[in-house]
Each structure stands twice: as C-alpha cells, then as structure tokens.
Design goal:
Helices cover about 20% and strands about 30% of the residues. It is α+β, with helices and mostly antiparallel strands. Strand 12 and strand 13 form a beta hairpin. Helix 2 packs antiparallel against helix 3. The protein is flat, with a radius of gyration of 35 Å.
Length: about 375
C-alpha cells in the first residue's frame, strides 16, 4: 500500500510548499531523536518531506502514488528503510530541489548543530536570589553581593597572553575562530560549524600563556557586584544586569538575573501602589470620632483624624503616602487605613450602666 505522505505531515493535498515546510519543521522538532523524540516517526516525516518538498517528486506522487527512480528513492540507495538521502545535501545546498536549509532547520531548531556560523561566543547567565525588607522594596535600596564567577583575567586583559608577549594566528582554524566538521547521521552527511577549541573562537593564540588564567583569558574569582533595587519592586520580580554573568574569551559576557524576595511587614502590606494597614479604634472613638497618631513606613509620626464611624469597619485614605510609582519618587500611591471598631473584652459596672442607657435609647 502506498504511503499517505500528506497525512504523515498533517497537511491537505492542496497545501502550498511553505505550508508543507512549516508542517515538517514542527514535526521534526517534535520527533527528533536528539530531543528524546520517536526516531521512527522522525524518519516517516523526513521521508514524506523529501517527496512533498520537491515539486517534481510531488507531481509524480500525486499522479501515481509514488515517486519513481530519478526523482525519488532508488533500490540501491543508502539510508534507513531503503530511503535515499542522496538528495539531502549539505547546509544551504537544498533538499531535492526544494528550498531547504538544513542549517536553518537542524541548526537553530535543534540546539545549534550546524547552525552557529558567525555567532559570537557568549558566557553563561547567572541567577541569584536576594531577600530584602518590605521597606526597601517600597522605597528602593542598593545592595552589594559577593559572587564567585568566571571573569575576565585582570592580568592579561582577557587575551590569554602573558604581559608583554604577542598573539599569533591560530593554526587550527587559520584565524577564523570556527572549525568546519562533516558528520554522518541518520539524515546522511552534513557540515556543521563549531567554535575552535584551540583559540576558543578568538582566532588568535598567545605565544606565551598568561600565568594567571593559563591562556584562557578568563578565570573564576570572587567579585563584588552592586545591585540597585528600584522603588516599588514587588515580591518575585527579576532584575537583569547585562554583562554581569560569566565571561568567555573573545565573546560577550552573560547576564546576571536577580530574583527579589520581599520579607513581609508586621503592619503594612501592598495592594498595587497603595499601602494598607489595619487600625483598631476604641468603641468610644469609633462612635464619637478622634485624632490618633500612627507611625508611617518611613518611620515618621502621622496625625490622622478618625471621623465618627457609621459601620464596624471603614476605610480611611491618606493621599500620597503609598508606594512610589515613578523613578523620582514624587508620585506615590495612597495609604489605606482599615478602621476597625474594637469591642472591649470586659466592662466595668459603670460602663455596663452606660451601655444600658444606650440600649434604652435604641442604640
């Protein structure tokens, strides 16, 4: 029975070449063995694309249910299942006449194998956690952390050469910093490009290696890094410090990511740009109104006029005493005070008589 290549790729018989290519990309990524996928399925979708991705083979398949010798598989061809991969050429040369770039499909898609041409080496990113008090999260702060990381060698300046000595062209890559390799896989032979291991991508090697970093241009050491925590940051937010990750020779340093954890406050909590606190109010003050003193998050004393309450719980808003919402700190949210009428735990005889009088008045 002839194979249904359209069903294998999940496309309609009227699908365009671009639609077929997109379907193949998606399935190839799903089933690729290097990504833990199903190798048998990967072979099936690759075989289907080899036919449907070529206009001539596709016409033959649509007309006769198969692609004939000269346009498709041949009896003596190499590859799995008798399938001919002779048309599956090196990166950039095409696949059976179709516009198929293996460097594009199997380089960027599957982790850079064969697709890293011309890319500058980049150091690893680093992620750390930083816990700060609630007050510092609201108003901002500065912190210094001691971090052990791979950093540029201070002695040689990162070129790996002993001070006063010269660099020479790397003989392994002839100064390009890249090495071409031809590999065999289930897809046949293809050429990949990797960073030269001798010069580590710089294209130059020192005549005399630096004693501090042994010619690598980088070494692990402890460094102090200043972190500016912006005002208004919330728990769980991330601060990115470009170039503060690990260094790499002849390349760009990675980034440092700081995840901020905000310790809870015993009085205040946040609701957006507003600070919220609960203020218990004596029953008499709740009924008659009063003036009370509270301590703000800044540590200042604030006189607040509590009006006579009409309900057991009410909200009092103090404008401009909340979380800063701009870099200058001139614009801030509000302070929300939740007023709660506090009932006494025990009444004296005189207090009970007063309450009985209130009851007689219908209160």
């Amino acid at each position: 029975m002839a194979k249904d290549y359209y069903s294998t790729l999940g496309v309609d018989k009227k699908a365009s070449t671009d639609d077929i290519k997109k379907a193949f990309r998606k399935l190839a990524q799903k089933y690729h063995p290097d990504k833990g996928g199903d190798e048998a399925k990967f072979k099936e979708v690759t075989e289907a694309y080899a036919v449907l991705g070529d206009d001539k083979k596709r016409r033959e398949y649509d007309a006769y249910g198969q692609a004939f010798p000269g346009g498709g598989p041949s009896a003596g061809a190499s590859g799995f299942g008798g399938f001919d991969f002779s048309g599956f050429q090196q990166a950039g040369s095409g696949f059976g006449g179709a516009d198929f770039d293996i460097g594009d499909i199997f380089g960027d898609l599957f982790g850079g194998r064969g697709g890293a041409r011309g890319r500058e080496p980049r150091g690893r990113d680093i992620s750390i956690d930083l816990e700060i008090p609630f007050k510092d999260a609201v108003f901002g702060t500065k912190r210094t952390v001691l971090l052990a990381r791979v950093s540029t060698c201070e002695l040689c300046g990162g070129n790996g050469a002993a001070p006063g000595t010269e660099l020479e062209t790397c003989k392994t890559c002839n100064g390009s910093g890249r090495v071409h390799e031809t590999r065999r896989s289930i897809l046949g032979e293809f050429t990949s490009v990797r960073v030269c291991g001798t010069c580590e991508g710089s294209g130059k090697v020192p005549k005399e290696k630096c004693l501090e970093c042994k010619g690598h241009g980088v070494r692990r050491r402890e460094v102090e890094i200043g972190i500016t925590v912006p005002a208004g940051i919330e728990d769980g937010e991330m601060i990115r410090l470009p170039g503060q990750g690990e260094a790499v020779k002849a390349g760009q340093a990675g980034d440092l990511y700081v995840k901020v954890h905000v310790a809870p406050h015993k009085v205040f909590h946040r609701e957006g740009a507003n600070l919220v606190m609960t203020l218990p109010v004596k029953l008499t003050d709740a009924l008659l109104g009063a003036s009370v003193s509270i301590e703000t998050l800044e540590g200042k004393t604030l006189e607040v006029k509590v009006p006579a309450m009409k309900r057991a719980e009410e909200l009092l808003r103090v404008r401009g005493r909340g979380v800063p919402v701009d870099s200058s700190g001139s614009t801030r949210g509000d302070l929300i005070i939740r007023l709660e009428a506090a009932l006494p735990h025990k009444l004296s005889h005189k207090a009970k008589q007063a309450v009985e009088q209130l009851r007689e008045e219908g209160l």
